[in-house]
Amino acid sequence: MKQHLWLALAVAGAACSQEPAPAPPASPTPEAAPGPAAAATGAAALRERAKALLGALPDEAASPTNPVTDAKIALGRILYFDPRFSKNQDLSCNSCHDLATNGADAGPTSVGHRGQRGERNAPTVYNAAFHVAQFWDGRAADVEEQAKGPELNPVEMAMPGADAVVVVLRSIPGYLPLFQAAFPGESDPISYDNMARAIGAFERRLTTPSRFDAFVEGEDAALSAQEQEGLALFLDTGCTSCHNGVSVGGQLFQKLGLVKPYPTKDPGRAKLTGEAADQGVFKVPSLRNAARTGPYFHDGSLATLDEVVPIMARHQLGKELEPDQVTAIVAFLGSLSGTPDPGYIAKPELPASGPDTPKPDPS
Ligand code: HEC
Ligand code: HEC
Fold first, then answer.
1. For the chain, what is the domain count?
2. Whose CA is nearest to atom 25 of ligand 2?
3. 348 found inside a domain
4. Which residue from 164, 176, 261, 288 has the highest number of Cβ atoms inside 10 Å of its Cβ?
């Protein structure tokens, strides 16, 4: 158990960066030296803590109200890529959440109908179904409810109403058999709600298992020594008080600038609730794939994780990190990037338009 103690001391020293770290003993006693056995114990203890607070990513974010089936996924995938239910038929979900480039777009904000820009950064759709709610302010309960939003948002897909979307879906002959297969037994399966259910089912398996998951499942070598150090710091510094669960975030709402005020124009959840206490409160974002989905924050105002991590420590926790601690945490965050199954995200063939399919409307 001496090794445990050694690790605990080393980690505590590293975490409290305001205080000078205790000087290492000049000649460590043999039991206290971090030999290979100590390293293995360290990895095992770290794994248990990571399992308890974070955990390995499941294959699917299951839903009791929208069970995932192969037929729903097949339909949802096509809908996800189909631009014909945007006003000018030039935007699909994939335009702003490109599955080939980490499920997000590269800009601080996204370009919608007629080149308009919204005010918030597009989060990745990968692993989003694991979150407690959707959007930066959590205004949609789940991915199914979320999937009814972008089509009607005037700065996104800009359709005039749900009915207009259903008209498009009905005008494309190939959709009827797909909706019938996905929603068997329903007399009129093509509906706005079923469109959203199919997209939601597709999203529920948009997962990106990573090296971090291999580590949690027992493979010590999946994370380098520096990444393990970063993981320990992430736990010890208190990042997991907000970024927790299998999606390393997405589980609660918190104020940006909880301990030390952080300037932001966006009212966050106050826009929904009207409560002064919700000013600047956002959903804690998932950090899965964060290394690949910059720029950061709800407004895309920060370019790199090296900038974000010290701001988080300072403004959310009241702590100052040493540069090498920032480097280790950023290295750990890199281990949360995973690659989806290429077959699952391949662009499907879209069913052909029919004679009554509306024409693009650039106005
Ligand atoms: C014009 C760009 C654009 C299009 C098109 C678009 N989105 Fe988004 N999406 C965004 C932006 C921006 C946000 C964040 C908005 C906010 O939080 O207020 C977002 C948020 C989301 C989220 C929430 C993720 C999270 O972590 O909270 C999901 C899921 C999502 N979109 C899926 C979709 C789906 C499905 C479609 C197609 C039906 C779609 N989006 C179409 C830009 C777009
Ligand atoms: C008190 C809660 C809280 C704590 C503690 C916290 N965060 Fe955050 N974190 C947030 C919130 C809220 C945001 C979203 C801020 C925004 O966009 O307005 C965020 C955003 C981030 C982002 C940007 C993600 C993105 O996609 O834009 C990173 C990276 C991050 N945090 C890392 C960390 C690290 C590392 C720590 C520990 C040093 C930490 N956080 C501690 C609440 C917290």
1. 2
2. 296
3. no
4. 288
